[in-house]
UniProtKB/TrEMBL annotation:
Organism: Sphingobium olei
Family, per entry: Belongs to the DprA/Smf family.
Domain Smf/DprA SLOG: 73-279
This protein's name: DNA-processing protein DprA
Matching InterPro entries: DprA (IPR003488), DprA_WH (IPR041614), DrpA_SLOG (IPR057666), WH-like_DNA-bd_sf (IPR036388)
Gene, per the UniProt record: dprA
Domain of life: Bacteria
Domain DprA winged helix as annotated: residue spans: 300-355
Lineage: Bacteria, Pseudomonadati, Pseudomonadota, Alphaproteobacteria, Sphingomonadales
Amino acid sequence: MSEAERFDRLRLIRSPRIGPVSYRQLLARFGSAGEALRAIPMLAERGGGRAGVADAGAVEREIATSRALGARYLLMGDADYPMLLDQMEGAPPALIIKGDATLAGRPCVAMVGARNASAAACRFARTLAQDIAQRDAVVVSGLARGIDTEAHRGSIDGGTIGVIACGIDIVFPPENAALQEQVAERGLLVTEHPPGTQPLARHFPARNRIIAGLALGTVVVEAAPKSGSLITARLAGDAGREVMAVPGSPLDPRAQGCNELIRQGATLVQNAADVMEAIGGFDPRMVRQGSFDFVGEPVSSDVAEAERVAVIALLGHAAVPVDEVIRLSGLSPAVVQTVLLELELGGRLERHAGGRVSLA
């Protein structure tokens, strides 16, 4: 990949209304990020709106800032872009990393849990992470309070990856400043956000998909119902990864999420040997070898107005699966995907988890 194409790809994902799905579709249709950038205004107009592209000067400043911080970029298509993450729905087209990138290529185990974890759970998480790292696996977590913090502390000497929901120069929570610096120096720090990005609520579910995507399996140590840790576990399960949980007392609300996961079929784990046994059954043939190839997002270069009207008529403010829109419209996937892309660029479509869409 040329430096010009790398720059254009970063500029493409930084452009308004461009997400991982539209990024893939644009590259599949136009073959290069430069051509895609030139086509965005036209496609947005067909979708009933207007859209610009990211300012080249702003992208240049972002790159300069990242380099000054000692960070670098991993783009889809790079040989060292993590292959397991490449398989995730909505995987980030661009990562900013600081530290040892080879850690992402080793067997990884995600460990997540409650921010207000009990003292016993924190101690268990730290010991479990240390034992996993001593078995030549890398522990991935989110540098949050509680279980995440202890997972990194336990695995810092053997291999740890911290995924954050903000810029690489931002620390959250503030009390983990020293730990985040250690992860960047002795492990690997990962984000999809430009420097200076503050941690907003919507960034955390997106961060969770990276945590789950990097790992062969996810261990939940302590979690209340409807917690972010359970989101990570669900994402791991949806991707065909191993979901593991540490059982807890039914009298402790912080254990209810883990106990419910086990009831639903998650693997009960009590030590590092259990974890390694669970991920040992993962078939590496499930992972596509080589870099991202942009296959699998059909788009069309020609859509009739009647086809566009037919697709829009099937959409509403309730999210529906794209497959259902294709079935009901009777149109080809390429035509439907193109109309959805145009609507998204025009600001009239929102994408949701699970391949669902709705009118904005």
